[in-house]
Backbone:
Protein backbone atom coordinates (compact mmCIF):
# COMPACT_ATOMS: atom_id res chain seq x y z
CA UNK A 1 0.00 0.00 0.00
CA UNK A 2 1.10 3.41 -0.84
CA UNK A 3 0.77 5.84 1.92
CA UNK A 4 0.00 9.38 0.90
CA UNK A 5 0.61 10.82 4.36
CA UNK A 6 4.36 11.47 4.02
CA UNK A 7 3.81 13.20 0.66
CA UNK A 8 1.26 15.54 2.20
CA UNK A 9 3.63 16.24 5.09
CA UNK A 10 6.59 16.97 2.81
CA UNK A 11 4.39 19.11 0.50
CA UNK A 12 3.00 21.12 3.40
CA UNK A 13 6.53 21.64 4.83
CA UNK A 14 7.73 22.89 1.42
CA UNK A 15 4.76 25.29 1.30
CA UNK A 16 5.59 26.58 4.80
CA UNK A 17 9.24 27.08 3.78
CA UNK A 18 8.17 29.02 0.66
CA UNK A 19 5.79 31.09 2.79
CA UNK A 20 8.53 31.97 5.34
CA UNK A 21 11.05 32.73 2.55
CA UNK A 22 8.46 34.98 0.88
CA UNK A 23 7.91 36.87 4.13
CA UNK A 24 11.66 37.45 4.53
CA UNK A 25 11.98 38.61 0.93
CA UNK A 26 9.00 40.95 1.41
CA UNK A 27 10.65 42.51 4.49
CA UNK A 28 13.82 43.24 2.50
CA UNK A 29 11.85 44.77 -0.37
CA UNK A 30 9.83 46.92 2.04
CA UNK A 31 13.02 48.14 3.78
CA UNK A 32 14.54 49.08 0.40
CA UNK A 33 11.34 50.90 -0.63
CA UNK A 34 11.33 52.89 2.62
CA UNK A 35 14.94 53.92 2.04
CA UNK A 36 14.19 55.03 -1.52
CA UNK A 37 11.07 56.88 -0.36
CA UNK A 38 13.07 58.65 2.37
CA UNK A 39 15.69 59.71 -0.16
CA UNK A 40 13.10 60.92 -2.65
CA UNK A 41 11.02 62.73 -0.05
CA UNK A 42 13.79 65.11 1.03
CA UNK A 43 12.25 68.50 0.48
CA UNK A 44 14.14 70.80 -1.86
CA UNK A 45 15.66 73.94 -0.40
CA UNK A 46 13.98 77.23 -1.09
CA UNK A 47 15.77 79.16 -3.77
CA UNK A 48 17.34 82.37 -2.59
CA UNK A 49 15.26 85.38 -3.41
CA UNK A 50 16.95 87.44 -6.09
CA UNK A 51 18.60 90.60 -4.90
CA UNK A 52 16.90 93.62 -6.36
CA UNK A 53 19.55 95.86 -7.83
CA UNK A 54 18.95 99.47 -8.64
CA UNK A 55 21.40 101.78 -10.34
CA UNK A 56 22.59 105.26 -9.40
CA UNK A 57 24.52 107.86 -11.37
CA UNK A 58 27.83 109.14 -10.00
CA UNK A 59 29.22 112.50 -11.11
CA UNK A 60 32.65 113.86 -10.32
CA UNK A 61 32.65 117.48 -11.44
CA UNK A 62 36.38 118.13 -10.88
CA UNK A 63 37.41 115.18 -13.08
CA UNK A 64 34.49 115.75 -15.44
CA UNK A 65 33.15 112.19 -15.57
CA UNK A 66 29.87 110.53 -14.77
CA UNK A 67 28.80 106.90 -14.89
CA UNK A 68 26.15 104.53 -13.59
CA UNK A 69 26.97 102.08 -10.79
CA UNK A 70 24.90 99.39 -9.03
CA UNK A 71 23.34 100.16 -5.66
CA UNK A 72 25.31 97.28 -4.13
CA UNK A 73 28.32 99.57 -3.99
CA UNK A 74 28.56 103.00 -2.42
CA UNK A 75 30.91 105.95 -2.26
CA UNK A 76 33.73 105.16 0.16
CA UNK A 77 36.11 108.06 -0.40
CA UNK A 78 36.12 111.14 -2.61
CA UNK A 79 38.57 113.96 -3.13
CA UNK A 80 39.03 116.63 -5.78
CA UNK A 81 41.16 114.29 -7.91
CA UNK A 82 39.88 110.80 -7.11
CA UNK A 83 37.04 108.65 -5.85
CA UNK A 84 36.59 105.11 -4.56
CA UNK A 85 33.29 103.28 -4.83
CA UNK A 86 32.99 99.81 -3.32
CA UNK A 87 31.07 97.52 -1.03
CA UNK A 88 31.70 95.93 2.36
CA UNK A 89 32.84 92.65 0.88
CA UNK A 90 35.18 94.39 -1.62
CA UNK A 91 33.95 92.15 -4.43
CA UNK A 92 33.07 95.05 -6.68
CA UNK A 93 34.81 98.38 -6.77
CA UNK A 94 35.46 101.34 -9.02
CA UNK A 95 38.49 103.54 -8.31
CA UNK A 96 39.61 106.46 -10.41
CA UNK A 97 42.16 109.23 -10.27
CA UNK A 98 42.44 112.25 -12.54
CA UNK A 99 45.16 114.76 -13.23
CA UNK A 100 47.14 116.38 -16.01
CA UNK A 101 50.07 114.01 -15.60
CA UNK A 102 49.59 110.55 -14.18
CA UNK A 103 52.55 108.25 -13.81
CA UNK A 104 52.01 104.91 -15.47
CA UNK A 105 52.34 102.25 -12.84
CA UNK A 106 54.46 99.28 -13.79
CA UNK A 107 52.28 96.43 -12.57
CA UNK A 108 52.49 92.87 -13.82
CA UNK A 109 49.63 92.52 -16.27
CA UNK A 110 48.20 89.18 -17.30
CA UNK A 111 46.82 90.50 -20.58
CA UNK A 112 45.61 93.57 -22.40
CA UNK A 113 42.31 94.03 -24.18
CA UNK A 114 41.08 96.76 -26.45
CA UNK A 115 37.78 98.34 -25.53
CA UNK A 116 35.65 101.29 -26.60
CA UNK A 117 34.75 103.46 -23.63
CA UNK A 118 32.94 106.81 -23.94
CA UNK A 119 33.55 106.78 -27.68
CA UNK A 120 37.30 106.39 -27.23
CA UNK A 121 39.33 103.29 -28.04
CA UNK A 122 41.39 102.37 -24.96
CA UNK A 123 43.73 99.57 -24.02
CA UNK A 124 42.68 97.97 -20.77
CA UNK A 125 45.20 96.01 -18.69
CA UNK A 126 43.98 92.92 -16.89
CA UNK A 127 45.78 92.63 -13.56
CA UNK A 128 44.86 89.68 -11.38
CA UNK A 129 41.99 87.78 -12.97
CA UNK A 130 39.26 90.18 -11.96
CA UNK A 131 40.82 93.65 -11.90
CA UNK A 132 41.10 95.83 -15.00
CA UNK A 133 42.72 99.24 -15.27
CA UNK A 134 42.75 101.74 -18.10
CA UNK A 135 43.47 105.42 -18.69
CA UNK A 136 41.31 107.88 -20.64
CA UNK A 137 42.00 111.47 -21.65
CA UNK A 138 39.15 113.92 -21.10
CA UNK A 139 38.40 115.46 -24.53
CA UNK A 140 37.65 118.97 -23.19
CA UNK A 141 40.08 119.43 -20.30
CA UNK A 142 42.93 117.16 -21.39
CA UNK A 143 43.05 115.55 -17.93
CA UNK A 144 44.08 111.93 -17.80
CA UNK A 145 41.67 109.74 -15.85
CA UNK A 146 42.95 106.38 -14.61
CA UNK A 147 40.30 103.78 -13.70
CA UNK A 148 40.71 100.53 -11.76
CA UNK A 149 37.53 98.41 -11.86
CA UNK A 150 36.39 94.86 -11.30
CA UNK A 151 35.88 92.83 -14.44
CA UNK A 152 32.16 92.43 -13.66
CA UNK A 153 31.62 96.20 -13.64
CA UNK A 154 33.55 96.98 -16.84
CA UNK A 155 30.60 96.42 -19.26
CA UNK A 156 28.42 98.80 -17.21
CA UNK A 157 31.19 101.39 -17.15
CA UNK A 158 31.77 101.00 -20.91
CA UNK A 159 28.12 101.72 -21.62
CA UNK A 160 27.49 104.56 -19.18
CA UNK A 161 30.75 106.53 -18.81
CA UNK A 162 30.30 110.09 -20.05
CA UNK A 163 32.42 113.22 -19.93
CA UNK A 164 30.88 116.32 -18.34
Residues:
Amino acid sequence: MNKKGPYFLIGSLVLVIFFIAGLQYGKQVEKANKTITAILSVSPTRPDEPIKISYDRFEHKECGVSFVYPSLISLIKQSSTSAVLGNKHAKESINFTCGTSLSSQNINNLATVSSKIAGTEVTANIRDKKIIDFTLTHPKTGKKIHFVVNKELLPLLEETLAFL
In short: Residues 5-40 form the longest helix (36 residues). The two ends are 122 Å apart (CA to CA).
